[in-house]
Design brief:
This protein is of the alpha+beta class. Helices cover 68% and strands 18% of the residues. It has a domain of 98 residues: Orthogonal Bundle (Helix Hairpins). The protein contains 2 helices and 4 strands, in the order H-E-E-E-E-H.
Length: 142
């Protein structure tokens, strides 16, 4: 096998490894975005389900599979985490608007990540085809 052909084979094998690592990174990003989207959608649905005109008792999770029963009134405020440890008190409508904006951002990011995933998949396929072709050529050279 010529050294030029061997070099190309090694370069393609390395490229495939890099692309596969990048693909895994994208898949992790897609998973995290999907989880965040699901969480925000569930929060939006929960806020929409809060009673409009009467006081009622609701159960809130506080973590560690522990729940607290509280009285909710239509004028109750909702605390929204907007950043690194920053919580803002908002109305029901403002909270829903914030969540809808967040959901839209997650959907856009998810669409972009899916596009990246498809592009990298195609690049990996092309590189593998080229590598297989080079491997066949190297066998013919022997």
């Amino acid at each position: 096998m010529s050294s030029e052909l061997e070099t190309k084979i090694n370069e393609l094998a390395n490229l495939i490894g890099v692309l596969e690592n990048y693909y895994e990174s994208i898949m992790s990003r897609i998973y995290l975005l999907s989880q965040a989207l699901e969480d925000s959608t569930a929060a939006s649905n929960a806020i929409k389900a809060l009673p409009e005109s009467e006081t009622s008792e609701i159960v809130l999770p506080i973590g560690g599979d522990i729940y607290v029963q509280v009285n909710y009134t239509p004028d109750s405020k909702i605390m929204v985490k907007v950043g690194d440890g920053v919580v803002v008190v908002r109305s029901k409508e403002s909270s829903l608007a914030f969540l809808n904006s967040r959901i839209e951002e997650f959907n856009k990011a998810l669409t972009a990540a899916q596009g990246d995933k498809n592009e990298v998949e195609n690049r990996i396929k092309q590189a593998r085809l080229e590598l297989n072709d080079l491997m066949k050529r190297s066998e013919n050279v022997r």
